[in-house]
Amino acid sequence: MDKTKDMSTNLTKRTICWLLISSIFLLLFSSYASPLNNYYWGDAAIFRTLGLGWLNGKVIFKDLFDQKGPYLYLFQMIGLAISKGKIGIFLLEILNLSISLELLYRIGRYIIPSSKKIFISILIFLIFYTATIGEGNMCEEWSLIFTLLPLYLCIKYLKGSNLYHPLLYTLIYGCCFGVLSLLRINNACINIGILLGLSFLYIKNNEIKRLIPNILIFILGMLISITPMILYFYYNNALDDMIYSTFLYNLKYKEVWGEVNLSLIVSNCLKLFPCLICIFFSYRYDKKYKTKFSYIILPSSFITLLTFYNCWGYNHYFTIVLPFIYITTVMSCSLQQKKWTYIILLLLFLPYSVNSIRCLGKNINLNIVYRNDYLYKKVGYINGLPVRNLNDEVNKIMDYIPVNERDSIYCYNLFPYNGILSIANITPIGKYFWLQDNISKVDIKVKQEIHDYLIKNKPLWIIYDYYSKESVLNQVLVDYNIVYTTDNKNMRINLCRRKN
Q1: Closest CA to 175 of 188, 156, 162
Q2: Residue 7: pLDDT over 80
Q3: How many CA atoms lie within 13 Å of 354's alpha carbon, on the beta-carbon side?
């Protein structure tokens, strides 16, 4: 039976299965995106603030700063247009993960015929994913579809009977790369690897004339996905801001915060080891089944390794490694090496196990312990999590601010407590509203920009972290009275009102 027709059968049943699995998985492990709790926190809260600001007419990057690409905030805006709470973005997350699981299934079907083993491999993928999902609603999570779709199409071509690579596939590769370049370009490692691998095959087969149209079509696909964004920001006089925030700032960020210690380097290397293992298994698979998978696995793996060079390697970054773990699993099953499969997967999981356990513990605390007075008294506050009464504290802060003055709130160094903005459902004024001290270290011009903004605009209200020692803010605070300070040693936030 043709593979495409074979995979079309039972599609409805699989769709229901993926939706159910995705819903349960994200409810349990997508910490601050899950509707099981009402906490907003850290990076995910920043993304939501930019999405809400865009929905409310702000021009992101010009009016609100963050260092990811515009497609991430487009997804936030669409989710918030569905529902201002968590439900809208959560539904998009379910759709995103469900499509990703279907793509993993289809990739697996071209490597091994057993649906049972593919489902087990997907389960293993999800177990590893608990270690890299982070806070939920992270940039890497939204990158999965745009990574797996090109991978699926390329494997379909390499395993199929087509003599020449379809140009439609190349167009899709370009579109996906364009989205990833305006989401987080580091996540496009597999996409670049596919392009390099196919180019090498064309050169090896002396088919340069066929390579050139594919390169042009790839560029066309990339233009299709990036042109709307470029035109939008150009029309709103924010193209320079978008380029700076998405690309240039990140280069400076890597220079300033790129120094890493030995233990972190070792940890990163262990977590990246699946890339090398995948090369080994793809080579053995090619040798046994006369395929050419290693032509795309090899460059994809090495590009992934290069992106982590001199990098802090936050847990969620390693989501881009998970496709290599999945391919290793299904290829190992296909090569009928059950004993080695279990041993290899266990060894690969060990560096991820601590983060996986932390993810489980974090969600148990947020969704169970925080809901029960008896359990909370036994466990107490957990460092790294929001305080249990965060929403009550936010309500106290907002009670001091009249409704007609909530469009003049400036925030300083609110991280990770920038979730205050999401809970109150407000958009701050001022381009920079989180970790201004750190941003100023990356780009010294930001410090002067913040100073000039505060002197010129004099916001009615300022919410800032109690421990902020930045002179820029201190120069301004002489014109403000402290109205309220949170009475919690684990959450020290000051609310100030402008005098007169």
Answers
A1: 188
A2: no
A3: 5
